Amino acid sequence: MDRIIANIKGKNKGASIVFFAGIHGNETAGVFALERVLKTIDPETIHGNIYGISGNLQALKSNQRFLDKDLNRIWTKEQLEALKSKDQFNIEELEQLEIFKLLQDIITTDSGPFYFIDFHTTSSKTLPFITINDALINRKFSKLFPVPIVLGIEEYLNGPLLSYINELGYVSLGFESGQHEEKEAIDNSISFIYQALVHAKIMDKETVPDFKKYHELLKSNSENLTEIFEVVYLHRLKEGDNFKMKEGFKSFQPVKKGTVLATSNGEDLECSRSARLFMPLYQKKGAEGFFIIRPIKPFFLKLSAILRYLKFDGLLVLLPGISWENNSKAALKVNLKVTKFFAKSIFHLLGYRNKRVDATHLLLYNRERASKIESYENEGWY
């Protein structure tokens, strides 16, 4: 199996789109979809560049989520910096080094704008859906697809590949196409590839056979659910936990408060609120037992966009206990005593979700200030 599934250089200038698949080795639908689609594309019809990249090659050969370490949980600046001084690497670190070099080569060689899309599947039944870091460029591009969107997951996960790319300022989104072994997951991925190529203006709609069919397929398979949701809870597994999800649950399923969702170390785990279940775990490997999500009202989505355009967060540093981490203004340093008086939703409105805690402070990271908005201003969707 090759790292590069395809690299199509168009005859005309345009954007660069990078598709990742198989970052988890037991999630092969995206790999199959990219192989099927990209080998049929004529470079003469392309505006820009297309890359199809396989993720964890060794885990894909073994059909395992990962072998030594989850490749989609190690994309932090600290981890990448630590690799520079190492002379011995585990399997996933070797994979990471190769992908990182490819990523750097693409960003330095091509002129952009750049689009990064990572294909995944889930261990449970699910509607197809998009996950994004909460930046406006991600929201706007994701809304072009007829599937539900889940944002805020970066607040609960440390080190996903797309979070690292989004920190660089580029459009980046994950597409979860279905359950691991379902043929429908491949079909959904194929539909998404064609739509992404058209929305990024890399292919003209007229050159895509049955474009409308692909749109309608995703719309139907997502049961016409196109709301934006946010993650409000994660049941995180600790090493040694004896966790077992109750059978029959699926992503986006409404659940009532008090519903027994799983057992952990012999105790029932009940849903703490009436909401929707998200990505229940039905496989041995994985550190996230299940998430709980809720829809975001359109009013708050519009309000957050206005506040971010106005850079309203700049006023927060006038308050005692809140300051910029450094001159880059990429993160707020917030005294833990101050957070008692600020609802989490206030920070969410302003784009601060990802956080790191030390003994006395939170570091709240904002994707908005890092976004390379100027690269996308002339794109039709922006």
Strand line-up across the major sheet: 1-3-2-4-7-5-6-8-14-13-10
How far apart are the termini?
37 Å
Give helix % range.
25-40%
Report the sheet-strand fraction.
25-35%
Q: How many individual β-strands?
A: 18
Low-confidence stretches: none
Shape: globular
Name the helix and strand elements from N-terminus to C-terminus, one letter apiece. EEHEHHHEEHEHEHHEEEEEEEHEEHHEEH
Biggest sheet features:
11 strands, mixed
Report the structural category: alpha/beta
Mean pLDDT: 94
Rg result: 21 Å
Contiguous helical run count: 12
Chart the SSEs and their pairings.
Elements: E1 4-9, E2 12-21, H1 29-38, E3 47-54, H2 57-62, H3 77-83, H4 91-109, E4 114-122, E5 129-132, H5 136-142, E6 149-151, H6 161-167, E7 171-179, H7 183-199, H8 211-221, E8 228-236, E9 243-245, E10 254-255, E11 260-264, E12 267-270, E13 275-278, E14 288-295, H9 298-309, E15 322-324, E16 331-335, H10 336-339, H11 344-349, E17 352-357, E18 361-366, H12 373-376
Parallel strand pairs: 2-3, 2-4, 4-7, 5-6, 6-8
Antiparallel strand pairs: 1-3, 5-7, 8-14, 9-11, 10-13, 11-12, 13-14, 15-16, 16-18, 17-18
Describe the structure.
With 382 residues, this protein is an alpha/beta fold. Helices cover 29% and strands 27% of the residues. The strands form three sheets. An eleven-stranded mixed beta sheet has the order 1-3-2-4-7-5-6-8-14-13-10, with helices on both faces. A four-stranded antiparallel beta sheet has the order 15-16-18-17. The longest helix is centred in the N-terminal third of the chain and has 19 residues, at 91-109.
